[in-house]
Amino acid sequence: xxxxxxxxxxxxxxxxxxxxxxxxxxxxxxxxxxxxxxxxxxxxxxxxxxxxxxxxxxxxxxxxxxxxxxxxxxxxxxxxxxxxxxxxxxxxxxxxxxxxxxxxxxxxxxxxxxxxxxxxxxxxxxxxxxxxxxxxxxxxxxxxxxxxxxxxxxxxxxxxxxxxxxxxxxxxxxxxxxxxxxxxxxxxxxxxxxxxxxxxxxxxxxxxxxxxxxxxxxxxxxxxxxxxxxxxxxxxxxxxxxxxxxxxxxxxxxxxxxxxxxxxxxxxxxxxxxxxxxxxxxxxxxxxxxxxxxxxxxxxxxxxxxxxxxxxxxxxxxxxxxxxxxxxxxxxxxxxxxxxxxxxxxxxxxxxxxxxxxxxxxxxxxxxxxxxxxxxxxxxxxxxxxxxxxxxxxxxxxxxxxxxxxxxxxxxxxxxxxxxxxxxxxxxxxxxxxxxxxxxxxxxxxxxxxxxxxxxxxxxxxxxxxxxxxxxxxxxxxxxxxxxxxxxxxxxxxxxxxxxxxxxxxxxxxxxxxxxxxxxxxxxxx
Length: 526
Hints:
Layout: H1 2-8, H2 19-28, H3 32-60, H4 67-81, H5 83-92, H6 101-107, H7 119-129, E1 136-137, H8 142-157, H9 161-168, H10 172-187, H11 189-202, E2 209-210, E3 223-224, E4 232-233, H12 237-242, H13 247-265, E5 267-269, E6 277-279, E7 285-287, E8 293-295, H14 298-313, H15 316-325, H16 338-350, H17 359-372, H18 379-398, H19 404-418, H20 422-432, E9 433-434, E10 437-438, H21 440-458, H22 461-466, H23 471-475, H24 483-495, H25 497-507, H26 515-523
Parallel strand pairs: 2-7
Antiparallel strand pairs: 1-3, 4-6, 5-8, 6-7, 9-10
Helix pairs in contact: 2-8, 3-4, 4-5, 4-6, 8-10, 13-18, 13-19, 14-15, 14-20, 15-16, 16-17, 19-21, 21-26, 24-25
């Protein structure tokens, strides 16, 4: 688990999972040996029969034509084997480094549709814990089965370490540990309650985003009581329009909220499917179900922003190195073969312009890259990819011609121009200078995009409704304020000789004073 901590770059204050804890819980339980044997035989027998079917398909040459059937068969098999395997299927649905795309698409069904358990059992749990109605109840008898399965998983995959290291760059036990940690976290609803409180804190000054209150005095480890969200499902565009909600403003709020989670807070919703995101009648976007969240360290957030800068500067060599820094590649891996592949992916996707860019096409090409190189997608980044794809899909449902980057770029531009974080100031300089030459057009575009983001966000009805009692404090945010950025730029000009020389050269480039560019960028602020 130490390797996971190093890779994450974060300190986890509470951990329910460790290989030792799982082993002790299983072996100390009554009838442990018999349970292990029976469950092991059940798993090996069912998976063995399925594997035999795949082998037979290959031998008779029909492996391609029966893929849809075999994919459905796998999904049903995982449901039959129980909650651990259902969760494994949900994880595999986001892991192109492990499973092929057609199987991934079938397993995606498990993310929204799993077998229910009887209401009466849920009511019994309620009476046992609280004796009153509530919002969420944990499936009964789930924890002992999961501990047993995790023990068996880790034991069985230890025989695959050599293959795993060769294909994925890490041992297979590490993958099970990563999976087990996340799975056991989701079993404890006190952790989900804490996640909700963290989201409430993060979005406390963001009126267009609605996070439900959690009633901790009515909640426990097996039940969770939250504020009721009376919203409209994002899969019903007509109902959203009938409610008088501005679709463009709503989508802008949604994309900005997603990017803030990823790049600003480092705590993001890992399962934003249409059943977990609602449109409120005042224009707010509401999130529910916070059992599956992921944390990004400050270092990882900065590397992701670096990747945006690399894309702008077309620095594909450093973009490839970012893969190692983020844990996609083992340390010391030769990235030179990946550089041309990354360039091809980006050029094919972004070269056509914003109108043709979408994450699904990029992900499809990236999946091929993952399959051909020793790339392992860390669990948290598989959630990032799924989160972006799911939210882009929601955007397309509400507005088929929606352009994700047309909303994302203005947010990133505003962040680069206004965030006082020294690391972001450094990245702003990297964007504005290319090969030592100041890019006037980039500065102009950044300012225009940042103003666009501010205008779209301030026009949202939710902000206006929620802000009636404090309109003065929010009035400032209706305009792009670059006062601090200009002050920092002035200090940099005075004290950094290298930057001062470059700016002077930029102002006198081609033996002429670039007053017009300065005036254009100054006027664009107002």
